[in-house]
Design brief:
The complex is a heterodimer of chains A (564) and B (695). With 564 residues, chain A is of the alpha+beta class. Chain A has 13 helices and 20 strands. In chain A, the strands form 4 sheets. In chain A, strands 2-1-5-4-3-6-7 form a 7-stranded antiparallel β-sheet, with helices on both faces. Chain B is built from 17 helices and 35 strands. Chain B is globular, with a radius of gyration of 26 Å. Classes of the chains: A alpha+beta (564), B alpha+beta (695).
C-alpha cells in the first residue's frame, strides 16, 4: 500500500475528533458519579480485526487494557455482525481487564462491509457478586466477584434483545448500571455515525491507506523513543501486599527491561505465582501499565495505537501474578498497575534519570454501599476524593498534589465536596491537603489529602482495597529524594472504639455517627533535598503544608534565616 | 450629539467603530494598544478619530452620546497574576478546594509529569478557615464562630489584602452564615472589595462557586480602578454621554453595575463578535449563524441560535473555572502564526504552538524560522507580499519558502507548493473541526448554518472551511476586521440571575418557583430602570436547569417568566427531552426528573442604529488589480486568478470564483465553487455557485 503522510495526518485528526465526541456523550449523559464526575472510562476506534487505531483514554489504565478484549470480540463474531449490533463484554479471561470495566462496542459498516469497531469501556457501579460495587476481598474465584459476561449481543441489527437485557440487568443491584450502559450505547451510536461519514468521504481504500500509515507512524515514533535509551538490561522488583485472604502475604513482581536498538522487552519472568485472592492482574492490565510508563518516559506525545506495540514485547509468565489462570479472582488487578508502574520506573532510573518519576502514592481506596434514608434508595460510591494522594516528583517538577493513582494520569476527578454530600448520606468534616505528606527532594512529591466523614445513616458497608500503609511500601523517592507519607484508614465508632482495617478488608454494619478518617499519602521526592531552593521550602512552610520541624529535619531549614 | 463609538481593546490593537448619527454612516479605525494603561491608547485612538473627522478632541467628545467599551483588563489581570491581593474565608476543613481543582491534572497532560498547574488566585496562607457548617439540606450543623471570623479578617487586613472573598459550604442552600460574615467584614474592613458566594453564584458545587467568587474579588479592584480612571479621564475632557461596558454574556451594562460583579468581564474579549453576527444573520433573513474569528494564535467559533447569542456557564481561564453565564466560544489553537511541524512518525501537525507577533511567521523577516500558516498563505499566492495590512508591512516570500522547504517539504519529499498546500489542508481541518464541534454542541448540522467570518486572517480561510463543512453561504462583514467593536454598538443591556431550587420535578410548586423567578426579574428590571431603559424596551426570560434523576449535569430550558403554570411546566418538560436527545443521542421520557436551579435574564433593548447602506456606485465595472497565480485546493495546482480591490467594491458587484479580493484590513479567497455578491451594506456574501442571492 502506498503511504500518504498528508492523508494519514488528516484522517488521524478526524479520528481523534470522533473519539472525543464519544467521550463527551458518556461524560455528560451517564449517571454514575464514577463516570460523570470521575471519568473512569475510555474510548477506542478499532480495525475490523481488533487492531487499535485510535484511542481517547480518559483513564490511561483503561486504554491499552481494551485491546486484548477487542481482538477476542473481533475473532468471536467474525462474519456474524450486522449494522446496529451492540456487543457487551467484561470477562477477564477473554481479554478483559476487570469484571467491573464493561465494554460496549458497535461494528461500523461501509457499503455493506464490516470495517471497524467503536468501543467504550467504563467502570460500572455494581456487577452483582458478593459485595455491592464489587471489590470482594474474600473472593477466591471470579464467580464470587460478580457477573461474568463473555461477549454477548445486547442489540441485534438495531433491535434490543430484551431477554438478554433483562438477564444482565437482573443480575446487578442498581438501576444506574442500565442507564450508564444506555449512555455508552449512545456514545457508540454517535461514533458510528461519524465514522460512517468519514468512510463515505474518503472511501475504504484511502481510509485503509491512512490507517496503515497511522500505525506505521506510531511505530516509528516509538522506535525513536527507544533508540534514545541506552542499550542494556535494567532490573527492579517491588512487592504487592495482602490479597484479602492472607493479610500478611507478599507477592514480588520481578522485571527485566531489555533495550536493544529500537526494541524494548518488558519481561516479568520470576514474578511470584498468582494469589488465592483478588490481586491477580490480567495480562491486559499488565500491558496497559507498561504503556503508561512508556508514554510517561517518552518526551513527546505519541499516537496511541497498536503500532507502538510492534517494537515493544511484554512477557508475562502464565500462572503468575501478572497473568493469572482461569478462574482466579482479579477485581483488584487494575490497581496493581500502581506497583507495576513503580517497578518499571525503578528499573529505568539509571537508563533515563531525567524522564522517570518517583513513585506516586499507591492507591488505598474504599467503596461504600448502604441505604440513603433521605431518598429511600440504596447507594454505592467510590471515595475517589479521599484516595487521591500525591504524584511522584520528576526532574524539573514537583509531584502533582492530590492527583491519585498513576494509572489515572491525574484524569480521575474527585467529587465536588457539596455534590458528594448531596448524593451520599455522609457529612464531610474535613477534606484538605495533608501537611507533611510530601516526600522531600530537590523536587518534592505531591501532597496527599486527609478526609474525615461522618456516616449519617446506619448499616453502611465499606470495602477497603489498596496498599502502601508502611514506610517500606509507601511511594518511594529516587536519586536522593525521600518517600511520601503512608496511607491509613480508621473508623472511630460512636462508642469511641477505633478500628483500623487491613489493606484488603470489608467493614460492615457501620453505625450512624461513625467517623471515617483517611490519610492518602504524598508522592516520592526526586533528588537530594539539600538542593531544593530555600524559597520553595519557605513557601511550603508559610502555606502550612510543611511544618517547621519537618522542614528543619528534611531540608535544614531555619525559619528566621532571610528569605531567598 | 452626533456620534456613537464602539471600542474593543485587544492585545495588539484597539479597534473602533464610529457611527455618525446624522447620516447613520459608520467607519472603522485601528490604533495600537497600550497594555500598561489601556485607557491611554483608548484616548489616543479617540484623538486620532477626532482628527480624521477634522475636530478637536474636546469638540468630538462633546458630540459623543455613547461609548460602548470592551476591555480585557480583568482578563489580563488573571493571565499575568496581577490581580488584587485577595484573602479567602472558607469553612474550616475545606481550605484547599480552590487549589485542588478536583485533583485533575488536565486531559492534555495525562503522561506529562513535568506539568505544573497555574498557581491559585489566592495562596494557601491567605485562605483562612472559619468554624461554621451548613449541611446539604441547608440546616446549620455548626454555628458561625464570629470571633474566629473577626480574627481571620484582621489577620488578612494586616497582611495587606485589597479584597476578600467568602465561600462557605452549602451557602447556596442557606446564606445565613455568609450574611453574618458580610456584616462582620463590613464593620471591620469597610474599604475592602468583598464578594460573597451566595450573592455571586448561589448554586451547588463549591469547586465552581469558590473559584468564581474569588475571581470576582481578584479582578474587582482592578476593574474599578480602570473604570474610575477612564470615567474621570473622559469627564475631564467633557464627555457628556453614556459609557457602557461589555460583559462576557454578550450584553452591556453601566460601569457601576459591572463593578459589582466584575468577574462577568473576564471572558468578554470575544463576546462582541456573535452580537454582530446576529445582526448580519438578520440582514440575510435567518436567525441562526456561526461566527468564526481567526487571529494570529487562535480561532474562535460561537453560535447564534433562534436569534440569540448562545451562552455557557462552564467557562475557564488559565484553569480557573468561572460559572457565570458567558458567550459560548470554542477556541482552538489555530491562527496565522500557527507553526507546522512533523512528529517522529512523519505526521504533519499545525499548532498549537504559535510564532505569535514576535518573531512571527518566517515571512515577517523578524528572525522567525519556523513555517507558519501565514507563510503557507504567502507561498500559495493568497497574500500579496507588497499589500499585507494594506501595504503597511512587506512580507518576505523567500524566507517563507525556505522555512517550509527545510522543515516540511524536504523531510516529506514534496515540493514547496505541495507542502504548503498540505499545511493549508491540515489547518483548514482543525478550524473546521472546531466549527463543527460548536455546531453539534448546539444541536446544529453545520451545513444548515450561515458562516460569518471575522478577524484579519479569517476571510482568507473561510471559503475552504465552508467547502469542508458543505456550508453554502459565508458573510464577510464590511466591519470584519473590527467585528467585536461593531458588535458592541449593537449589544443590548443584560443582567443574569440564578437561585438554587433543588427538588424532584414533580414536586415543583409553580407558585413558589414563579415567585423566585419574579423576584429575580424585578431585580433585573430595577437595574435596567437605573440604566435608563424605557419600560417598553425591557424584557425578561426565565430558565430552568433540569436533569434526569441521578445525572450530574443539567440541561437548561428557557421559558416565559409569566408562564409557570401547570401547562407551562409541560412545555418545559417537552423542551428538556428534546434538548437532551439533541445533545446526547437519547432521551428518556417517563424517567424521573429533578430541577436544580432557576434562572432569569433581563434584557434592555437599545435603539436600533438603522445604519445607512454602503455608498452606491457603478457595479457594472469591477475594480481589478493584477491577476496572479494562486493555489486551488481542489486541483492542488497554482492557477492565475483575478484579483479585486475590496476597498472599491460597491453594492451589487458580483465576483466569480476562483478569485482573490484584497482590502486594506483583510484578504478574501473565493474558491472555484463559490461566487461573491456585495450586499446593500457593503458586506461580501460568498455563496455556492448557482444559488440565487440578492442584495
Amino acid at each position: 500500500m502506498r503511504t500518504d503522510p498528508i492523508l494519514t495526518s488528516i484522517v488521524a485528526s478526524r479520528l481523534k475528533t470522533i473519539g472525543e465526541r464519544m467521550g463527551v456523550v458518556v461524560e455528560r449523559s451517564a449517571r454514575s458519579p464514577l463516570l460523570v464526575e470521575g471519568r473512569d472510562f475510555s474510548v477506542g476506534i478499532y480495525d475490523v480485526d481488533g487492531t487499535l487505531v485510535e484511542q481517547t483514554e480518559y483513564i490511561p489504565v483503561l486504554g491499552y487494557a481494551t485491546t486484548p478484549a477487542m481482538k477476542h470480540i473481533a475473532g468471536r463474531f467474525a462474519g456474524r455482525v450486522a449494522a446496529g449490533d451492540v456487543i457487551l463484554h467484561n470477562d477477564p479471561y477473554t481479554g478483559g481487564n476487570q469484571l467491573s470495566d464493561w465494554r460496549v462496542t458497535k461494528p461500523v459498516f461501509n457499503a455493506g462491509e464490516h470495517v471497524a469497531w467503536v468501543v467504550i469501556v467504563a467502570h460500572q457501579a455494581d456487577i452483582g457478586g458478593n459485595v455491592p460495587g464489587s471489590y470482594n476481598p474474600f473472593a477466591t474465584d471470579m464467580w464470587q466477584e460478580g457477573l461474568r459476561i463473555t461477549p454477548v449481543k445486547l442489540y441485534d441489527a438495531g433491535v434490543r434483545r430484551d431477554d438478554v437485557w433483562d438477564l444482565v440487568f437482573g443480575n446487578v443491584r442498581l438501576d444506574v448500571v442500565a442507564d450508564d450502559v444506555t449512555a455508552m450505547i449512545g456514545a457508540c451510536t454517535v461514533g458510528e455515525r461519524e465514522l460512517v461519514a468519514l468512510l463515505e468521504r474518503y472511501g475504504i481504500e484511502r481510509y485503509r491507506t491512512a490507517v496503515a500509515g497511522l500505525l506505521d507512524a506510531a511505530e516509528s515514533s516509538a522506535r525513536v523513543v527507544i533508540n534514545g535509551i541506552a542499550d542494556g538490561v535494567y532490573r527492579a522488583d517491588w512487592v504487592v501486599h495482602d490479597d484479602g485472604i492472607d493479610h500478611d502475604g507478599r507477592w514480588t513482581i520481578r522485571l527485566a527491561v531489555t533495550v536493544a536498538g529500537d526494541r524494548m522487552t518488558f519481561d516479568f519472568a520470576g514474578t511470584d505465582d498468582q494469589a488465592t485472592g483478588y490481586i491477580n492482574t490480567p495480562r491486559a492490565v499488565t500491558i496497559s501499565a507498561v504503556m503508561i510508563a512508556f508514554f510517561m518516559v517518552a518526551e513527546d506525545e505519541l499516537p496511541h495505537n497498536d503500532g507502538v506495540l510492534r517494537c515493544i514485547d511484554v512477557l508475562t509468565p502464565e500462572g503468575s501474578l501478572v497473568n493469572p489462570r482461569f478462574p482466579a479472582p482479579t477485581c483488584f488487578g487494575n490497581h496493581v498497575a500502581d506497583q507495576l508502574a513503580a517497578v518499571i520506573m525503578l528499573a529505568l532510573v539509571d537508563a533515563v534519570p531525567r524522564r522517570v518519576t518517583a513513585a506516586w502514592n499507591h492507591l488505598l481506596a474504599s467503596i461504600v454501599s448502604g441505604w440513603d434514608e433521605r431518598v429511600q434508595a440504596p447507594y454505592v460510591d467510590i471515595l475517589i476524593n479521599a484516595c487521591k494522594g500525591g504524584g511522584g516528583a520528576t526532574f524539573g517538577a514537583d509531584g502533582y498534589d492530590h492527583i491519585g493513582l498513576i494509572g489515572s494520569g491525574g484524569a480521575i476527578a474527585a467529587q465536588d465536596p457539596e455534590m458528594f454530600e448531596v448524593v451520599n448520606p455522609h457529612l464531610l468534616h474535613r477534606f484538605e491537603y495533608l501537611p507533611d505528606s510530601a516526600g522531600a527532594g530537590t523536587w518534592r512529591g505531591g501532597l496527599g489529602v486527609i478526609t474525615e466523614l461522618e456516616f449519617l445513616d446506619d448499616g453502611a458497608q465499606m470495602s477497603i482495597f489498596g496498599d502502601g500503609d508502611t514506610e517500606a511500601t509507601t511511594a518511594f523517592g529516587i536519586l536522593g529524594g525521600t518517600s511520601g507519607s503512608t496511607n491509613e484508614i480508621t473508623f472511630t465508632y460512636p462508642d469511641g472504639t477505633v478500628h483500623r482495617p487491613r489493606l484488603k478488608d470489608l467493614v460492615s454494619d457501620i453505625p450512624r455517627g461513625t467517623i471515617y478518617r483517611q490519610r492518602a499519602g504524598g508522592g516520592g521526592g526526586y533528588g537530594h533535598p539539600s538542593e531544593r531552593p530555600r524559597e520553595r521550602v519557605h513557601a511550603d512552610v508559610v502555606n502550612g503544608v510543611l511544618s517547621v520541624e519537618r522542614a528543619r529535619e528534611l531540608y535544614g531549614y531555619e525559619p528566621d534565616a532571610p528569605a531567598g | 450629539m452626533t456620534y456613537l463609538v464602539g471600542i474593543d481593546v485587544g492585545g495588539t490593537f484597539t479597534d473602533f467603530v464610529i457611527v455618525d448619527e446624522r447620516d447613520r454612516s459608520y467607519r472603522a479605525h485601528k490604533s495600537p494598544s497600550t497594555p500598561a494603561d489601556p485607557s491611554e491608547g483608548l484616548l489616543r485612538g479617540l484623538r486620532e478619530i477626532a482628527e480624521l473627522l477634522g475636530l478637536a478632541l474636546e469638540d468630538f467628545l462633546a458630540e459623543l452620546s455613547l461609548i460602548v467599551h470592551g476591555t480585557t483588563v480583568t482578563t489580563n489581570a488573571v493571565l499575568t497574576g496581577r490581580g488584587a491581593g485577595t484573602g479567602l474565608l472558607t469553612t474550616e476543613g475545606f481550605r484547599d478546594v480552590l487549589e485542588m481543582r478536583r485533583g485533575v491534572r488536565s486531559r492534555e497532560h495525562l503522561y506529562d509529569n513535568t506539568y505544573v498547574a497555574p498557581p491559585p488566585l489566592v495562596p494557601r496562607a491567605r485562605r483562612l478557615p472559619v468554624p461554621e457548617r451548613v449541611d446539604a439540606a441547608g440546616e446549620v450543623r455548626t454555628p458561625l464562630d464570629r470571633e474566629a471570623l473577626a480574627r481571620a479578617v484582621t489577620q488578612l487586613v494586616d497582611d495587606g489584602v485589597e479584597a476578600l472573598a467568602v465561600c462557605f459550604m452549602h451557602a447556596y442552600a442557606n446564606d445565613e452564615h455568609e450574611r453574618q460574615a458580610r456584616a462582620v467584614i463590613e464593620e471591620l474592613a469597610p474599604d475592602l472589595f468583598l464578594s460573597v458566594s451566595s450573592e455571586v453564584l448561589p448554586q451547588v458545587r463549591i469547586n465552581d462557586r469558590v473559584s468564581t467568587t474569588v475571581m470576582n474579588s481578584y479582578v474587582g479592584p482592578v476593574l474599578r480602578r480602570y473604570v474610575d480612571r477612564l470615567v474621570a479621564g473622559l469627564a475631564e475632557l467633557g464627555f457628556p454621554g453614556l459609557l457602557l461596558v461589555l460583559q462576557s454574556n454578550g450584553g452591556v451594562a453601566t460601569p457601576e453595575l459591572v463593578s459589582r460583579l466584575p468577574a462577568t468581564t473576564v471572558l468578554s474579549g470575544p463576546a462582541g463578535g456573535p452580537v454582530a453576527g446576529l445582526a448580519h444573520a438578520r440582514e440575510r433573513g435567518v436567525s441562526d449563524c456561526i461566527v468564526v474569528d481567526m487571529g494570529g494564535t487562535s480561532y474562535d467559533a460561537s453560535i447564534v441560535k433562534d436569534g440569540e447569542v448562545q451562552t455557557t456557564r462552564e467557562g475557564e481561564i488559565d484553569r480557573h473555572p468561572i460559572s457565570l453565564p458567558m458567550t459560548d466560544v470554542h477556541t482552538v489553537g489555530a491562527g496565522g502564526g500557527s507553526i507546522a511541524w512533523l512528529d517522529d512518525g512523519g505526521l504533519l501537525h499545525l499548532g498549537p504552538q504559535s510564532a505569535g507577533a514576535h518573531p512571527g511567521p518566517a515571512a515577517y523577516g523578524r528572525g522567525g524560522t519556523e513555517p507558519t500558516c501565514t507563510d503557507a498563505d504567502l507561498v500559495l499566492g493568497y497574500l500579496d507580499p507588497q499589500y499585507f495590512l494594506g501595504g503597511r508591512m512587506a512580507l518576505r516570500p523567500d524566507l517563507a519558502r525556505e522555512a517550509i522547504e527545510r522543515r516540511i517539504a524536504q523531510p516529506l519529499g514534496l515540493d514547496v507548493t505541495a507542502a504548503a498546500g498540505a499545511m493549508l489542508e491540515v489547518i483548514t481541518l482543525i478550524m473546521a473541526a472546531g466549527t463543527k464541534d460548536m455546531a453539534f454542541k448546539r444541536g446544529f448540522d453545520p451545513r444548515e448554518l450561515l458562516l460569518v467570518s471575522a478577524g484579519g486572517a479569517g476571510p482568507l480561510h473561510a471559503g475552504m472551511i465552508a467547502e469542508e463543512l458543505d456550508i453554502e453561504r459565508v458573510v464577510i462583514p464590511r466591519m470584519s476586521a473590527v467585528l467585536c467593536a461593531f458588535g458592541m454598538l449593537l449589544a443590548d443591556l443584560r443582567h443574569d440571575y440564578v437561585r438554587s431550587y433543588s427538588r424532584p420535578w414533580d414536586q415543583l410548586d409553580p407558585a413558589h418557583a414563579g415567585d423566585l423567578v419574579d423576584r429575580m426579574v424585578a431585580t433585573g428590571m430595577a437595574a435596567l430602570e437605573q440604566e435608563g431603559i424605557a419600560p417598553a424596551d425591557r424584557s425578561a426570560v426565565g430558565s430552568a436547569d433540569l436533569r434526569y434523576r441521578g445525572q450530574h449535569h443539567e440541561v437548561s430550558v428557557t421559558f416565559d417568566p409569566a408562564s409557570l403554570s401547570a401547562e407551562g411546566l409541560g412545555a418545559i418538560e417537552d423542551a428538556f427531552h428534546r434538548r437532551h436527545e439533541e445533545l446526547y443521542g437519547f432521551s428518556s421520557r417517563g424517567r424521573p426528573m429533578d430541577i436544580v436551579s432557576l434562572r432569569a435574564t433581563t434584557l434592555g433593548r437599545r435603539p436600533d442604529l438603522r445604519l445607512q447602506p454602503a455608498a452606491a456606485g457603478d457595479p457594472s465595472r469591477l475594480p481589478c488589480r493584477t491577476p496572479r497565480p494562486v493555489y486551488l485546493p481542489s486541483t492542488g495546482t497554482m492557477e492565475t486568478v483575478q484579483v479585486y480591490d475590496g476597498d472599491l467594491l460597491v453594492p451589487g458587484h458580483r465576483i466569480v470564483g476562483p478569485a482573490v479580493v484584497e482590502a486594506a484590513t483583510t484578504t478574501l479567497f473565493v474558491p472555484e465553487r463559490f461566487d461573491v455578491l456585495v450586499d446593500r451594506s457593503g458586506n461580501l456574501i460568498m455563496h455556492r455557485k448557482g444559488l440565487e442571492e440578492h442584495i
